[in-house]
Structures are given as C-alpha cells and as structure tokens.
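Hey team,

Sharing the Glucose/Sorbosone dehydrogenase domain-containing protein run so nobody has to redo it. Sequence (320 residues) first:
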Amino acid sequence: MKKSDTFTRLAVRVMLILAAAGVIIPALPADIIKSQNYTLNIMPVAEDIDYAWGFDFLPDGQILLTQKNGRMFRIDTKTGSKTDIREVPFVAYRSQGGLLDVLVHPDFARNRVIFITYSEPVTEDSAQTAVMRAVLDRDRLTEKKCKTDGRALPEIYSYGHRNPQGMTVHPQTGEIWSAEHGAMGGDEINIIRAGVNYGWPVISYGLNYNGTKIGEGTEKTGIAQPLYYWDPSVAPSGMTFYSGRLFPEWKGNLLAGSLKFGLIIRLITDNGKISGEERLSLSQYGRIRDVKEAPDGSVMFITDQPDSALYRITPAKEKN
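Structure output:
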C-alpha cells in the first residue's frame, strides 16, 4: 500500500472517532478522476470491511452490507460506523461461497422484509445456493424462511446461464438484465425472458481455459444471443441503471463493476440495445464487486478484497 493510501485510511479512522464524540471536523479531501462527461470525486464512506459482497439502501439512508465470511452490517453513511446484524444464517465460507447479496424489499418501511443469498452448508465438504426471506427487527434477523431441499421449482424462469454475478431491473420496462462470466472470454450482458435458453454450455464467445472451443461455437438455432459480450473478459459484477439527478449525461445508462480490472463500465443504452461503453478506471481501490445508485443520486460501490471499503462518487467542482 502506498504511503498516501495509508495516510488517507488513518485520517478517515481519526475523523470517525472525532465525529462519534461530537467534534465538528472538516471534510476529508476526495480523490478526483476524469470521465468523458464529468470530473468525479471519490470518497470513502466506510472501511475495514473483509471481502464485501453486496449492499442495499434502507429507507432512512443507512446501508445493509454483507461480508462473504457471514457478517452483515448496518452502515451509517454519515459517520461510516458499522453495527452488526445478529442471527444471520450460518454460511459455507470457502472459495467463492459465503454470504452473498442482500436486497431490501420495496415496501420495507411497512414490512421490514429483506432477502439474502448465501451458500447453505449441506455436508462438511459441500454447499448449495440458498435464498432467504427475513424480517429485520432492529439489528436482528427474524422470521427466516428458506427452501433448501434442492428440488426444481416451477418458478424456474430461464436457463443456460454461466456464473451470473450481477442482476438489475430496468426502471422503465421492468426487464431483468444480468451480467455473467464466461470462461476465457465471453462475458455477457443478457435481458432475461421467460423460457429462454441463454446458451451455456452449448454456445459461448469464450474458450475453455485450455484454449479449446466451447460446445458448438458461438451460435445455434433456438438459443439466444447475448445482448452484449466482452472478449477478452472483464469479469463483470454488480450493476445498476442510473436514473438520478447528479449525472444527467448518464441517465438511462447501465453501470457495471469489473472484478478483473477494477473498473466501473458505463454501458450506453438505447431502446434495449447497448451502443458503446466508457471505462472508469478505479483499479487503485481494488476489485469492484457491486455498484448502486444512492437515494441522493450519487453512485456508490464496494470492493472485493481483505481490506474492502464502501465508496461514494459525486460530481466535482473544477477549479478555475
């Protein structure tokens, strides 16, 4: 870690301690980067997070955030302080498994419901994916419901997916968009429709890790083509459509994280198509795990590493 990074982290911790004591302190200077349309401020909101995986916003502006090791926090976005959420389900924390994403119900203010995905232990050496519905009672999960018997459900909507890492709903059309990892190349963006086969492992724009062809090539009758794909791979992660007021030039665009290169990729969308992209290089912060629009129109992202952090992006006022 560079000395400047170490100083910044130390300064943030000192400021949080002073803020908790009621001391009025000046704002910490933000990092500044350039994009095609804006000069951007990047400011840490919360640090000392161990492999962050997902986050979502509560109606009061606080954030629920998951760590892959099975911990969940409520984060105060004004101070960066973290409060543990109790009675989170036990997870199989190994390799890519653990506590994964969290979603706050749209009617949370009334029902207090959240949804979480995680790796459910089956035996000492095996696990399966689980989705749980729970009620957040202050800082404790209650009324937890989960189906883990492994049976196929009638709700299965589509198939032929490989390692989906991000999913979001288009704010106007209600369509579900997903980001999926290929093998060696062939990462995809897809619009998910009922009953559609998205190809894996029959077709792919990537190759096997030994360089050989996957399945039957890149096209086959009756199998959907990706809306957009990357070759070489970028390892896309969490994503969101931007609809806020702070970045009007980004309105309607899809913002996707990149684990491999530490990017936020702005995908320019038009009538259900992707016409181009801009890559915002944030590799100095680490692997980008998830990206979301905050209620105030800023953009927030988390990183995926032992010293993860939650960051906020806002427009900078350029000096004359």
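The domain at 3-315 is CATH 2.120.10.30 (Neuraminidase).

Ping me if you want the raw files.
A.
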